[in-house]
Amino acid sequence: MKQLTGNEVRQKFLDYFSEQGHMIEPGASLIPNNDPTLLWINAGVAALKKYFDGSEKPRCNRIANAQKSIRTNDIENVGRTARHHTFFEMLGNFSIGDYFKEEAIPFAWNFLTGEQWMGIDKDRLYVSVYTDDEDAYRIWTEVCHVDPSHILKTDDNFWEIGKGPGGPDSEIFFDRGEKYDPEGLGERLFFEELENDRYIEVWNVVFSQFDCDPALDRKDYKELPQKNIDTGMGLERLVALIQDGETNFDTDLFLPIIHATEEIANDPYQGEYKMAYRVIADHIRTIVFALSDGANFSNSGRGYVLRRVLRRAARYGLKLGIDEPFLYKLVPVVNEVMKDYYPYLSEHTAMNEKLIKNEEETFKKTLKNGQALLDEEIANAKDGTLSGEVVFKLYDTYGFPFELTQEIAEEHGLKIVREQFDEQMQAQKDRARAARNAKDSFASQNEALMNFTTPSEFVGYDELTCEGKVIALFKEGEMVDAIEGEGDVIFDRTCFYAESGGQVADAGTVSGDGVLAEVVDVQKTRNAQNLVKVHVKEGVLRLGDLVHQSVDAAKRARTTANHSCTHLLQSALKKVLGDHIQQAGSFVGPDYLRFDFHHFEKLTPDQLAEVERIVNEYIAGAYPVTKEIMDIEEARQSGATALFNEKYGSKVRVVTMGDVSKEFCAGCHVDNTANIGVCKIVGEESIGSDSRRITAKTGYAAYEDFAHEHGQLDTIAAAMKQKGIKDIEEKVAQQLQNAKALQKELDQLNNKIFALRANEWIQEKVKAGAFDLLIKKVQGMDGKAMKDIVANLKAKDSGLLVLLIAADDKKVVFVAGAGKDAVAKGANAGQIVKMAANVCGGNGGGKPDLAQAGGKDASKVDEAIELVRSYVPSIA
């Protein structure tokens, strides 16, 4: 077996399949492009689904890639086991309707055993196949000459995720030898499929040949019209075998990160500390790649996943005695390890370090909050047990590992029921798995549409009307000779733009001899034809008809202006916010445009105003807009911006707007930026953990918004008895300042009135056990005023225990106080407000002598009062 670096293994894999006629597909971004069903790209095939379901045709039917992936469903096993990762690279070769088992199996075998490639001893390899897959068994034994004694037949070797393409698979295992077989069980480990570290799965080859449907028996699955090959081999796992690492972490892909961490930590990478180092090395790779691909930290979606990964790494840093932010210092180390294949990481170093350090500092504060919750729960624990729900909340919300909570609980004489925690953890996994199974399914293949390959010419960039011949008609997915009502049509020549690149499809009409149809949608087929959905209003549309096509020119013009404006908007955003701005999606329609981009914080009003000003400056600059077809490398060298995760052919269309914008784009655009008219930004918002969205309008639609806002200013001026809107902002500001001063004066007067009334309230106190108890509902009083009154009352009567309640439709506020003598007898204002608030669906607390809490359900105030009244006599 050859001794190779991790980078050499990856490159040899790609070189091998390039020699076998495969197109090397660049790895996709970890953030799925136009695929809302996935949170992350989580497998080599995830970015290629469109090829497997037949919705898009690849430039080459043989594909190989090295795909970075993120999975966090088993994050608790990372560092604990030898081969679990959150970030990993999947090496894969794929056939889209080209070769099948006869070539796929030898491809895998020859790469692993060939002296020019991995050079693995054939006797150390074992194979599993699906029980009924006689073809695969025959190829392994007769073509690859694998000893039948090294082949396992099992029903488990069948790959399917819900409805869609799937089929049997065949796995290749590597025998690591007796040192990984402490009980000396030998081949039993493999053939009895026992959990072990000796026989390690290296490669899985999936024969995607059936249209799977879980509602049917497998023997009833239909054969796919296009059979595919889908393989996956973990780079980290293969490198560990090549380099004879004890685990995946003991290789040159991780050890430089581990050694860099050792320089910061108190303890070395050995014994009980190995897990902490492995977690940190794995997780910092995930964080660096995710941030570099445009993700960010947040409380939802992929941002929440990323935050959880960082916090887990930071916690394990504490185990190594690292009490200060340190993960950000490992960013350059990750960049150095991965630079051969991922040079773009270095472009994001400074930003990644800043984001990671800020998140580490925030986590330190969160840990303190978690400790406060834990202290409170320990104080209130019953039966000497800390509930599994609380332990899971500390784990999931505050980042406390189970072991840490258990250790603290034991110090206080409490026990934890591990089963309760595991139930909560399993429920979370089940929810994630259910969502994942539904999301990862492929769509079914449309055989009729896939098999229709006659080209269709699009002339709509330059022509809004044209003649065209009907060359194909489809009704409910089936090819037909004529359609009435709704159906799909392909013309040999069309001017209707198909929805793509965020731009909506054209509308319009199709007319001919005795037929009139309305165009309701246009989509691009896998064979690059424009599939026009029509609603036939008159007559019948037949195969071979020569018809006149007419685009809705007004809709196209408005859409075109909005599309060109998105290009100017991206240019302006980079100018104001920085070059890290990357497009994350867009929508371009006739009424408005949306531009989504990766950015880590909300834009300020000044930034937004500056972006809008620059865009309108570009529009007023009347820059000519050119569109030209270029070789992709020539386009890149010319400075044209491409979507990071988009796949392009050898020729690309480049749209240039003066010297302010140059982008790859196949959409429709104005001929001069002045044609856009004007741009108005109408909204800016968060659309996820790491992305922002700007909504804008152009032309007449923008004018209407400007006019509407001007009308609002006129209305405000009239209400303030001003002539016109000149200086209206100063007038409004002055009025608000006056109103604020009057409100402050009113509050002060109210508080004085309440203070005077309080002297009367004290007469209403009653005896409750060892205490004087006063419970009073109040109105029109805020929490501060209530606290001031309670403080005055308990100062006047040291034996007094007082509870004030203010309630309205939205919330309940409780403020309690206890005089000095009352506290000495055991009164605790914090416990009293917490008890009352819990009844009303809230929470809170405070000091024994003064505390405040809030509730949500005002209908239960009387119930809370009765609870306090019955509780107080039992205190002393």
UniProtKB/TrEMBL annotation:
EC id: 6.1.1.7
Keywords: Ligase
Protein name: Alanine--tRNA ligase
Source organism per UniProt: Dubosiella muris
Source species taxonomy: Bacteria, Bacillati, Bacillota, Erysipelotrichia, Erysipelotrichales
